[in-house]
Structures are given as C-alpha cells and as structure tokens.
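Page 37, top half.
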Amino acid sequence: MEAFSSPDAQAKEISDLLLTILKEKLKSLKSDDHQEASDYERLLSQIGELQQRVVQSAQAEIVQIEQAISELLAKVFPKHVIKLDPKIDVDLEKTLTPFKASPELLMGPEDGYLSRISEQGSGARRTLLWTALRYLSESDVAAAASQRPHVLLLDEPEICLHPAAIREARKVLYDLPKSGNWQVMITTHSPVFIDLSQDNTTVVRVDRGVDNAVRSTTLFKPAKAKLDDDDKKNMKALNACDPDVNEFFFGSSIVIVEGDTEYTAFCLMQEINPEKYSNLHIIRARGKGIIATLMKVLNQFSTSYGVLHDSDTPMAGDTKNPAWGMNKTILLEKARAAEGRVRHVACLTDFEVALFGKIQKTDKPYNALLKLRENEELQSAVSKLLDSLISDTEPPANCKRWSSIEELEKYVAELA
C-alpha cells in the first residue's frame, strides 16, 4: 500500500486483503470429506477437459485456417508457417472468477449510517488496515484458510495515525510474520517502527548521496548483532522510556551517552552551534548497563561512533562497585568493532565531577543546564568533550581515552 494512494485504491487493498481468506477457503472447500480434490480443483479440471473437447472438435477448422494463412504468409516470407497454440491447461485459475464483483466494506456507528471505506478519513482507513492485519496474524480461522505465503509492502505506515495507533501498528507488523506465511517490508521515516528486541528485524537505510546516486546499506541483522535475552530486555526498556531512541538509524554521526545530564549538555551544544553539530544524533542510554547493548547494534553500522560514560570507582565503600565492572563489558564491545571505529571516553569519576568539579545529588540535568548557559568556559569544555567523541581531538581534563582496565584504574587513582 502506497503512502499517498487514493482512497479508492486504499479501500480496494483492504478489501482484497480480507478477500484472500474467502478465496483460500474456496480453494479448500469439499462437498464430501472423503473426496481427494476440492470442489474448486474439480471445477478447474472440468474446465480443462472442456477446453480439450472444444479444441478437438474444432481441430479441422483450425488446420484449415493455419494452412490458408500460411500460404498467404509464404508469399512474403518463404517457407514460413503459423500454428495456433490454444494454451490448454495453462492458467486455468484465470478462466474461473467465482466472485464477479469485489466485496465492499462499510464502516460507521452501530446505529448510524455506514459509509464506504473510501469515504472515511486517511487515519480511519489505515487503522482498519491494521485491524485486518491483526486478525490475519492472530485468527486461527485465517491461519487455517491461508497457507500460501504472502508479501506485504507498505509505504510509510505511520502517516495519519495517532502515536498510540502507530505503536499498535508496529506490534501488528512484527507479529504478522510469526504465522510463517507472511513477509513484511515497510519504508518509514519513524524510529517508532524499529524494534531491535525482535528477532525478525532487518534494517536497511536508503539515502541519496551528493552525486544523487541512491544507495542502500544493511544496518542491522539480528543474526549478526547476536543480542542475548538481557540485551533484548534492555532494548525493550529503552524503547519504553524513549520511543525515539532509534533515530540514530537516520543520522550519520552518533554518540552514546550514559545519562540525562550528558544528554542535556550536548543538546545545548547543538542548540548553540547548530551548523557544527547539524547531523549529530545523541543516544541517551539511560544507564551504564545498556551502553554495551547499544554498541552491539552500532557495531553493525559501517560508520564510526562515540561512547561517553562515567568511569566510576572500583569500590563502593567496602564492597565492589558493580558499575566499575561494566567498564570491562564496554571495552569488550569496543574490541569487537573495527579498529578506529569507536571513539571512547570516560569521565573521572562521573560527568558532573569531571566538568563541574563536584557531585550533584538532585536535579542534575536542570542544574547542568543552568550552569552551562551562564558559563562560557564550561560551554567550551563540554564542546571540547563532544568534539573528542566525533573526531580525534583530545578531550578536556578529567575525561580520558582508555584502552585497558589497568589504565582506567590508574587514572582514577591519580584523581583521588
């Protein structure tokens, strides 16, 4: 279904979708449970037999016509003849049309006027499409009636839908292939339609280069990313907190940050320097534990990206600090990327201490925003840190590139 197809065309697509169930039922219907072939198959066989009888009865006339035309043809093209091929038993299904008129769907209030689908609004038509698809994906009747494989092509399914309807549409589209009989391909500008927690998602980005050549790049395949159950839980949680997290599929320069404060600070830099950071997308991991999961996804990309996180400390009081252990996991995912692809910086021991010189207990993003707006020196430091994540420039003091746990531990010890 095209994004801007006419109301009549969209109504026909929806009707045809539901008509497939009726057609499949027709092909499997048997008057007698003991008969081998369905009524439909027997009817097609009878049509084929009728064709053969007609051709046989007209064989003499056919031969006479062939000879007469061949004699005339030979005067222009010597030694050329014609033969009539009646195409018996070819595409017999096209000779039989049990339903001459297409079914018509009507929609409206229960006790009110029911109008044709083509007369409904765009949002209503698309919502009805999801309803029909959901029935096909969940209904046992539909599954039993349709065993043939289908391919569903949709252009920008998010158009004219409310946010809640977009999320419902995404669920329907991901559930549909689970029946085994459907493959779904969509084009979209909405990050909401990308759900990396699913096993059946392949993401291909298509864009136009400076030379106007159209290029496509496969950005993500579940088999290559190898997301484990914890990774999938992380992605589900992140999608729930931030529905637009997958916007990085649409950008070319990407930086992962651990928390809200870094995200707020870098967004302010984008606001202050819009041209410099015009094509930068900042991913807010909302926790150190999710950074490694996002790196698994980004390692499938063909471009470099930046990672910023707190170093934390090896010990939290008298016990080992779990946050420190996550440094090793992040380093492991960095090692799996191509050399030089990941620009990796740690704040000693966290972003607030490294940039502002003290720990902020409450309202960290808001307080960071106030300090940055009033202090050009802080703005320069944050801008320098952001630059180190998208280029090879050095980060500011107390923010370090590191390549081993021992090196990071040394930096933290020196700070103490």
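Page 37, bottom half:
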Amino acid sequence: MVKEKKILLWICLVFLLLLTTGMGAFASSGSQVFDEAGLLSEDQIADLVQKTNTLREKYKMNFVVVTTNDAQGKSAREYADDFYMDHGFYDDGEAKGGATFLIDMDNREIYISTAHDMIYYMTNDRIESVLDTAYPFIKADEYYKCLSGMVDATQKYMDKGIPSDQYTVNTETGEITRYLSLRPIDWVIAVGAALILAGSVCGFTVGRYKLKWGSYTYPYKQKGRLNLTNQSDHFTNQVVTQRHIPKNDDSGGSGGGGMSSTHTSSGGGTFGGGGRGF
C-alpha cells in the first residue's frame, strides 16, 4: 500500500514537471507568434518573438504574427480578425491597439488586420505600402522575410506618427471619424489667444468702472465681485460626422490620403486592414 502511494506520488510529480515545462515553453513564445502552418524555423520564430515583444513594450501595441494552412472556411480577413479577438488581444487592457500579420496558405493571401489605435496609424495607403514590401517575399516562398518585413514596415509608420489628415470610414455605415490632435504650436496659439482675450476684457472692465472720461471713480475694489466656478475642459481626439458613401466590397483596403477603412468582425470588434493574394 505504501509502495503504491509512492508510485502515485512520483507520477504526480512527473506530470507537474511536464506541465510546468510546457507552460514555460508556451510563455517563452511570447504568445504573439503563432506558426500554425509550420512555415518558420525555430530560430526564425525566436527572432520574431523577440521583435514583437520589444515592439509591444515600446509602443504598448500588440504585434501578432500568424500563419495558417486551414482558415476554417473563413476569408483571410475574417480569420485574422477572429484570431485577434479569440486570443484575447482585442480586449487587452495593457495594449492600446495592435495588428495581426497573417500568411494564409489556405486562401493564398497575406493580410494585415488592425485594431483600436493601430487603425489611426495604419491608413489604407500605408497598409498597401507594407503589402508592397512583403509581396515579393511571399511570391518567393520567403515566409520569414515576408512577416518580418511587414512588422518592420509597420514600425516605421508607427515612428512617423498618425498622419495629420487621418480619418476613419466605416464601410458598412458610412460613418466618418476624423482624428484631431493638438500640436505644441497649437497649444501656444490657443493659450496666447486666451491671454489676449482675458487681457482685453480685464482692461475694458477696469477702464469702464474708473470712468476716465469723468471725475467720478467707481469703487470697484469695494463693490466689485468675481465668482469663480470650477470647470474642467476635456479635449477629445475625434470629431464624428456622418454622410452616405458607396460601400466598397474590396477587402484590399484601397483608398487615398489619410483614410482608414474599417468594418465590424463576426465577434463585434472594429477592425481595419487589407490583404493581397499570391
């Protein structure tokens, strides 16, 4: 009986060791690189893990790399969007947004899916430019260079910042969201204008009550009263307007200027993105 208990104990210890080792291997993958199609070597996966983890730390954005040879009957866009949501990246409380870089061997398409703040950075034109960078590599079956190139090109646009003319168009509703941000010079102009206006009002008030044109001076220090109320102004980065626009069924994400096209995924998330067949 004692011997059986010892054997059972050893089995439990071995099981726990294997479980811990497996969890460590999963954690070391960074959980942002998913080579489900087996297109990458171990060294290439390790390099992408390090790259995406570094970028996540720097930008507070998710950089999810995925390959698949079974899209489960979905389009490349649907698969990329659902993958991002199903793996918890969409509702990640630490990240401000992110992108999925997909090689879909089932649909023979490379695709970039963007979410939250990444939509503002990656306009349609920028996504097309990233796809231009990656396309020669995917055609040559250089899968690592394709994925790494997409991530690197996206990083360059992150460093450039959100385009000054950026706006988002929901292709399903026609809603337009314009991204507005104040530059340092805008703050200087706003504060300067406020000071000039305040000075003008103050000067007018003092001049009015001193009655410089008469002999009588109003005792404004004794009879004047100023009531201050606490008020907070909250600046928002977006102004939303609506108008009807023709729907674009092309999943390639084409469009000019600073436009970012968005759509709603099957899981209810809002995504941008674009892809290209190979």
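Margin note: Strands lie at 33-35, 61-68, 97-104, 109-116, 167-170, 175-179, 238-242, 259-264, 270-277.
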